[in-house]
Amino acid sequence: MKQMSMKDLNKITEAIIGAAIEVHKNLGPGLLESAYCECLRYELLQRGLEALQEVPLPLTYKGIQLDCGYRLDLLVNDAVIVEIKSVESLASIHDAQLLSYLKIFGGKVGLLLNFNVKMLKHGGIKRLAN
Description:
Elements: H1 6-27, H2 33-46, E1 51-56, E2 59-61, E3 64-66, E4 71-76, E5 80-85, H3 92-105, E6 109-114, E7 125-129
Parallel strand pairs: 5-6
Antiparallel strand pairs: 1-4, 2-3, 4-5, 6-7
Helix pairs in contact: 1-2
């Protein structure tokens, strides 16, 4: 994980949100999370960002590193975690999941994106900080 200023993290999250809006504008709601993830990764790469998909996230428990099968949907510029959903509405469990990933990863900022909405900017974007 890269150490970045909040200004740099804000620029990255703004770019991710712009890319997500572009993907949603082209695809609309109703597809699988995997389709949105792949298209968002493509859009981020086109914008000059580094975007890794399905990044393993090991858990350290009592000093032992365990591979529990956690995967980050997207890790952008080794700093921002993006969790993608395609659900009727975001729930508190989705917030908890992203906050747990941020804690385990040691990251500061993550985005929770729900593509199954009429307009992404109306209830489909949540920015969470650790």
